Amino acid sequence: MNSLTEENYLKALYHLVNENDEVSVNDLSRQLNIKMPSVNSMIKKFAEKNWVKYESYKPIKLTESGKKEASLIVRKHRLTEMFLVEKMGFGWENVHEIAEQLEHIHSDEFFDKMDEILNYPKMDPHGEPIPDKDGNVIQPDLKKLSKCKENETVELFSVTTSSEDFLNFLNKRNLSLGTEIKVLQKEDFDQSMKVFYNSQEENFSKTVCDRLLVK
Q: Hey, what's the signal peptide range on this chain (predicted)?
């Protein structure tokens, strides 16, 4: 049974890993706000469990076993978020911190039942894919709204951050997943956008547009 600390490390690795399944020790230290010696000590333990391949002064390489372990923790987190929204009536802006606590429950049966009650969802409330029971993840082909061109019409499919401040920002502007967005204007100077959706016009900064994933 993995400890809470180990699970937090695994989840951080999952979110930081690049296309080569690698993570720098510095990035992991910053993500967890933990000093380098402690991070190095934990990663050495992970290497003994064959979750990572680790050499001094080189990036951490997540193994297939490590990816599965990390994916299963993310699965618990995202299923919990979906359950809180769909079955308990929480707003998508209020579920992350609760899921952070519940994801450490060590009962596969509990989360399998949650999955069944939700009718096996593929995405969480923020549009992130939910790994299956084997840790497999199907990543949808999405792009940032900031990459769209003028007069292009797209659908908001996901957000890159589930921070309460950002989701409240979207709530105040009546913008949710599944909304059709048309790009009316894109400023050359700062890449900000004027967009149209739900019979309203809004101006979004590049920072906001970078956090909206569309298809």
A: none
Q: Helix (H, G, I), strand (E, B), or coil: what is residue 31?
A: helix
Contact 195, 181 (CB under 8 A): yes
> With DSSP H G I counted as helix, E B as strand and the rest as coil, what are the percentages for the chain, rounded to 5?
40, 20, 40
Q: Give CA–CA dist 60/125, Å, rounded.
A: 30
CA–CA distances in Å: residue 106 to residues 3, 120, 142, 212: 10, 20, 33, 33
- Could you say which residues of the chain have pLDDT below 70? none
Is residue 167 in some structural domain?
yes
Say if CB 127 and CB 213 are below 8 A apart: yes
Of 138, 161, 181, the C-alpha closest to 92 is 161
Chain segment 54-76, per-residue pLDDT in tens: 988 899 999 999 999 999 999 99
Residue 18 pLDDT: 83
| Structural domain includes residue 19 | yes
Query: Which CATH number fits the domain that encloses residue 150?
Result: 2.30.30.90
> Which domain does 158 fall in, by range?
143-214
| Interacting residues of 109 by C-beta distance below 8 A, sequence separation 6+ | none
Q: Which residues of 156-184 are buried (b: 16+ CB within 10 A; e: fewer)?
A: bbbbeebeeebbeebeeeebebebebebe
